[in-house]
Amino acid sequence: MSQLRRLPSQFGAHAVRLLAARDMPVCSWRSQSSWPPTTFPSSRGRSGSSYVEEMYFAWLENPQSVHKSWDIFFRQASEKTSAGSAQPQLPSVIPESRPAVSSRTKTSKLVEDHLAVQSLIRAYQIRGHHVAQLDPLGILDADLDSFVPSDLITTIDKLAFYDLREADLDKEFQLPTTTFIGGTENTLSLREIIRRLESTYCQHIGLEFMFINGVEQCQWIRQKFETPGVMQFSSEEKRTLLARLVRSMRFEDFLARKWSSEKRFGLEGCEVMIPALKTIIDKSSEMGIENIILGMPHRGRLNVLANVIRKDLEQIFCQFDPKLEAADEGSGDVKYHLGMYHERINRVTNRNITLSLVANPSHLEAVDPVVQGKTKAEQFYRGDTQGRKVMSILVHGDAAFAGQGVVYETFHLSDLPSYTTNGTVHVVVNNQIGFTTDPRMARSSPYPTDVARVVNAPIFHVNADDPEAVIYVCSVAAEWRNTFNKDVVVDLVCYRRRGHNEMDEPMFTQPLMYKQIHRQVPVLKKYADKLIAEGTVTLQEFEEEIAKYDRICEEAYGRSKDKKILHIKHWLDSPWPGFFNMDGEPKSMTCPATGIPEDVLTHIGNVASSVPLEDFKIHTGLSRILHGRADMTKKRTVDWALAEYMAFGSLLKEGIHVRLSGQDVERGTFSHRHHVLHDQEVDRRTCVPMNHLWPDQAPYTVCNSSLSEYGVLGFELGYAMASPNALVLWEAQFGDFHNTAQCIIDQFISTGQAKWVRHNGIVLLLPHGMEGMGPEHSSARPERFLQMSNDDSDAYPVFTEDFEVSQLYDCNWIVVNCSTPASYFHVLRRQILLPFRKPLIVFTPKSLLRHPEAKSNFDQMVSGTSFLRVIPEDGAAARAPQQVRRLIFCTGKVYYDLVKERGSQGLEEQVAITRLEQISPFPFDLIKQEAERYPGAELVWCQEEHKNMGYYDYISPRFMTILGHTRPIWYVGRDPAAAPATGNRNTHLVSLRKFLDTAFILQAFDGKTF
């Protein structure tokens, strides 16, 4: 349609409509020598035919003088007329002279009327959803606008828009190939055309799909909905639908009777969602899907657990027990946030199906990318590259779907090669309200689903009080996903019978809506009455179905009193068979050494410095980097990038899949990694040497991501959730940028195990360091991670033989700031060798990537070596600890600044420097040893971060605990500040100079009291 805007205004709207009906370009209808005509048609009235007349008769004179598409159209029309079709007669021979005006007018009207009918059909296909009867309450417009598009025939007077009259209603018209409303008929009367279009597009289903670029896909949808008689259901299908509605509604009624004062976030008003989801699952199972991962908010979760996932009802009911104690492991979460995993037989298809409902907090759409990541991982491990075995379903609330930005981020992952799950079925529970917020105040778009248009996902709006329409739409949606491997949205336009929760009073803010809701007949009664009236079921059969399910609920309620079933492990959404013992505990509490044989290190180093493919031309600058790696390998040393390479490569050798994702991770933000080589002469020809280490190695995936932190981190978290035998890493471009992914960190990573007993080994690589680069490119905010660490600063630990591993097992995550490549190498390998999984937060360096002192020797990485939580002083001060006057503790990059300053002042024998590589859980045992080793030394904590940031507030009380409050730990670093760093280079250097001076003025703390 963009080309239509080039049409001169004097051509009029009529010509535009005729062109739109044929999707024809308008910039070159005829050659310039014979066009334009001297007069143009007006926008209304019969004079509008003159323009088409000129085209038609120009074609008669010379077919080459009009655009090819018009030439084809006129030829086809002539051929059909010659064959005796019902199409109006068009001349089939070229006359020697122009016909009389009356003949020309008659012929052009025939052409014009046919094109008008095509334009009419297209108008319904594009805009029919705007007048569909979607609101079950009959009081709102789903698109927030009561306007009726002027090109839809809703009244007789609208015929004039197409220059048609009432007399034309009974004329027969040839149907275009872009519609299926005729079925096996090629012609229909205009009256019947309008009736069928209204039946398809303006009843209880509203279709948005004409924006899709693919003609084949649009035709597929047209055929599914326009073909007469497609929405026919057998008696058995109707009875199944009724039974599912009974279970959905009676489950909610049972909860309301037993726990009327409990929050349940029930499904009343959208009970049809249960048969809708089951239809999607049935159809997908029929098409070969074996594993479905679901994500959803809290509304209706218990019902989905009971009637879709088929969790034992007694497990659900016992969660309502007010005497329920916390599980042995974890704090647990409210019942309507919990997840589930279940393998069962699909009774409709008689095929095995595995269903996972991912645990999710509140209404937040944070679960969307998590589900996608888990789905991608399940597909990867099955070798399901086309999504034929594994798929995802996401359920959304309307307000959240429109308002939560992560929905958009997730959609934008849907077609990216390393993130696509080959299509997701999105089901929107459209309450037409968000808590107490009217949709007219909650979104700027007509529908809450408009964000899906960005990825050409078809959107099917449906009135949730028409169960058969819902079931048909869901069946088509599942078929679409499994045919085209693309996303699709089902918008269930419904209502919320109660308030936001069962304790809420919605009449405060939506009085008119809830007056209507109180009068609204429940969908179950309406559908049962319909089936009884048509003789599909009897009243007795309906009542027996209700009584049957009520009895099931009562029996489960009785069993729920058994305290033996009270365990949160029943709510796991990602079990790892064989990884833990039968009781869910680690098989051991030991971790083997993380070093590897030197020949393996050498082999990886050699591959990392080579190009495995022949005739592959790399950048000259990259050649120097590869030569540098080769030189380091010969000298048995590694820098940061090579240490990472060796950690990854050694895990691949051991069968561990490694996946690294994030913005620009293939090269690395700081141009240090270069895991993907690019041919400088052949576009898109790449090489990943890491996948050429060994013939039988595990695969390595490294992928640049969308410019998203929230969505991509959630995706990688879900990916890591699927299996414990994979190292999954997400790297922020700068550590600061995890700010926009904080929701994933807070809701899933730091608390996941406590809330849902869900182990996860996700690794976050967060570049961090005060380099004078400004407040947005300096700090990964270590204070946030440390504040959320669950180890107790006041509890003096008991140092058992397995203290290091048991301390890791008890923590919620591990926080490290490595100062050497060897430390980084070991901590990555330890992440996999531990007998359990914990999230790992790594504050990675920037300047240390190329710092000449920040290198490690093979001797620190070979077999028998391990990760050092604390690296003690090993210089002159360590040889005479009694003479040391100050012991400085630090972590990360500042160590190199301190060593340089100590050397320049000649204080190697008087000042010892100890590094904390692992900050949380706090290495109480090793810190105690270090402090006792230097009994006469002042203890100082030095950090480059500001005092109210960084590590000091975390380490200080823990030092006091381990030292029994007998020795102070002084702070040296930058003063408190609001911003994490300065953007002024000089200010940065002045503050650095200041705290380095303070660190080495040995009398700085003399005379001060603790």
Automatic annotation (TrEMBL):
Pfam families: 2-oxogl_dehyd_N, E1_dh, OxoGdeHyase_C, Transket_pyr. Keywords: Calcium, Glycolysis, Magnesium, Metal-binding, Mitochondrion, Oxidoreductase, Thiamine pyrophosphate, Transit peptide. Residues 638-851 form the Transketolase-like pyrimidine-binding domain. Its cofactor is Mg(2+); thiamine diphosphate. It catalyses: N(6)-[(R)-lipoyl]-L-lysyl-[protein] + 2-oxoglutarate + H(+) = N(6)-[(R)-S(8)-succinyldihydrolipoyl]-L-lysyl-[protein] + CO2. Its EC number is 1.2.4.2. The keyword Transit peptide applies. It comes from the Eukaryota. Its main location: mitochondrion. GO terms for biological process: glycolytic process; tricarboxylic acid cycle. It is found in: Mitochondrion matrix. GO terms for cellular component: mitochondrial matrix; oxoglutarate dehydrogenase complex. GO terms for molecular function: metal ion binding; oxoglutarate dehydrogenase (succinyl-transferring) activity; thiamine pyrophosphate binding. The OGDHC complex comprises multiple copies of three catalytic enzyme components, the 2-oxoglutarate dehydrogenase (OGDH/E1), the dihydrolipoamide dehydrogenase (DLST/E2) and the dihydrolipoamide dehydrogenase (DLD/E3). OGDHL/E1-like isoenzyme may replace OGDH in the OGDHC complex in the brain. The presence of either ODGH/E1 or ODGHL/E1-like isoenzyme in the complex may depend on its tissular distribution. Belongs to the alpha-ketoglutarate dehydrogenase family. NCBIfam families: 2oxo_dh_E1 (TIGR00239), PRK09404.1 (NF006914), PRK12270.1 (NF008907). PANTHER family: 2-OXOGLUTARATE DEHYDROGENASE (PTHR23152), 2-OXOGLUTARATE DEHYDROGENASE-LIKE, MITOCHONDRIAL (PTHR23152:SF5). 2-oxoglutarate dehydrogenase (E1-like) component of the 2-oxoglutarate dehydrogenase multienzyme complex (OGDHC) which mediates the decarboxylation of alpha-ketoglutarate in the tricarboxylic acid cycle. The OGDHC complex catalyzes the overall conversion of 2-oxoglutarate to succinyl-CoA and CO(2) while reducing NAD(+) to NADH. The OGDHC complex is mainly active in the mitochondrion. Involved in the inhibition of cell proliferation and in apoptosis. This is 2-oxoglutarate dehydrogenase-like, mitochondrial.
